[in-house]
Write a structure and sequence with these properties.
The protein is α+β, with helices and mostly antiparallel strands and about 400 residues long. The chain contains 14 helices and 20 strands. The longest helix has 13 residues. The termini are far apart.
Length: about 400
């Protein structure tokens, strides 16, 4: 038996089903956001959102039949197939017939960003997908009843970090992105040493359309005691270079082409699908065709020439112009600019930084380190926020040098 089998069998998933009713509490409008908007300086030029917020459905609107107790054995998730497009039924059947493949499970997979960290989530059939999760999670029926009922199951530490005061998670950067209530804390993947999680959270498959996910674009493949590398090569030949085939567990190959499909509102919609390969030093290599389509080098006030995503440049230029017009240009230190398009993982993690998309900037770096309140001028912060940026200084683990595109706005 391979080492990964021993580790998987030994994994104990941490879980906790949220107390209270199975139905998530009704979501009220966010008074904090309203208060912040009403306190914006009146001298600012107008900026209007360019996309209509996606309404958050009630849990009853996305609920599906609850699964029964699990009697079948759990399965080892050995390879992850991930495409930017829906996998055709014929392709799924072809994968299932590849020598060495024992079982397959299709579902929808996407990412959104929360406090710069990319969160990978899946929309699944709770009754079948659970067999690919750690045994403790798989056997805990209450977790999957909550997922079937329209709530989210998420890794405990991550869920407690990104949820709001009422237990909701906003599924995207935009303020109008749908929100999902956390119904259970549960590990969705085995915790193996040195191996990043490939799924942080799950919702049921009825959420996929609501969240504008590419439906049925992913597949877990279980190979039993077969060696993963030969099966990976067969699958990659069958599926082509545009589809990622990633070995999970201790055999993870970071050089395999990977895919990031963002969901969550106007910003994510505008960024397209990014494929990339990773390097051992934490940097990544985005698809050159994507870079040619989205990344531009242009001059902006104060900072001069920057290299950023074309989607963000108009709002960056508008924010910096407003800062100059209000006599605050000296509050941004040109020699302390930390960059915009920097394709990499967040330091010490396997999560893509928003800088990889060229939609974030770091300014006044020395005086605004992570975990501090930061020295950056708060009027500068409010101007950036007005022009569609989110400030890292407001996060649970602060990053006050960091501003990332939060919503698409248009100047009038």
């Amino acid at each position: 038996m391979r080492t990964s089998r021993v580790l998987v069998a030994a994994t104990v998933a941490t879980f906790a089903v949220m107390t209270g009713c199975a139905q998530a509490p009704p979501r009220a409008s966010d008074p904090t956001s309203a208060a912040r908007a009403s306190n914006l300086p009146t001298a600012m030029p107008s900026a209007t959102a360019s996309a209509t917020p996606t309404p958050t459905p009630t849990t009853s609107e996305v609920a599906m039949a609850a699964p029964a107790a699990l009697h079948k054995p759990t399965l080892t998730p050995d390879l992850l197939v991930y495409s930017r497009r829906t996998l055709p039924t014929s392709t799924v059947r072809a994968v299932a017939r590849v020598p060495g493949v024992k079982t397959v499970e299709t579902f929808s997979l996407a990412q959104f960003f929360a406090e710069e960290r990319s969160i990978t989530y899946a929309a699944v059939d709770p009754g079948t997908f659970r067999r690919y999760t750690p045994s403790t999670s798989a056997q805990t029926l209450a977790v999957w009843k909550r997922v079937a009922g329209g709530e989210m199951a998420i890794a405990p530490a991550l869920g407690r970090k990104i949820q709001d005061a009422k237990g909701y998670v906003r599924m995207g950067n935009d303020t109008g992105s749908p929100e999902v209530h956390i119904g259970a804390y549960a590990e969705m993947v085995p915790r193996l040493p040195g191996t990043p999680p490939y799924i942080d959270a799950v919702v049921n498959e009825r959420w996929a359309k609501r969240l504008k996910m590419k439906q049925g674009n992913a597949m877990l493949v279980s190979i039993g005691d077969n060696a993963p590398r030969p099966v990976q090569k067969k699958l990659q030949k069958l599926l082509g270079s545009s589809t990622s085939v990633r070995i999970l567990g201790v055999n993870l190959d970071i050089h395999t082409t990977q895919t990031a499909v963002l969901t969550g509102g106007s910003v994510s919609d505008a960024l397209g699908t990014l494929t990339y390969t990773a390097n051992r030093d934490g940097t990544v290599n985005p698809d050159p065709a994507w870079v040619a389509s989205y990344i531009r080098s242009e001059s902006v006030p104060i900072l001069g020439r920057v290299t950023c995503n074309k989607v963000m440049l108009p709002e960056l230029r508008a924010a910096l112009t407003e800062i100059v017009d209000r006599g605050l240009a000296s509050k941004i230190h040109v020699g302390e600019y930390g960059g915009c398009f920097v394709p990499r993982f967040i330091a010490g993690t396997s999560s893509l930084s928003f800088h990889t998309f060229g939609t974030a900037i770091d300014i006044n770096v020395p005086g605004n380190q992570r975990g501090t309140s930061g020295q950056i001028d708060r009027t500068v912060v409010s101007i950036f926020e007005h022009w569609g940026f989110q400030w890292g200084g407001s996060w649970h683990y602060t990053d006050p040098m960091h501003f990332e595109l939060h919503r698409i706005v248009a100047a009038r």
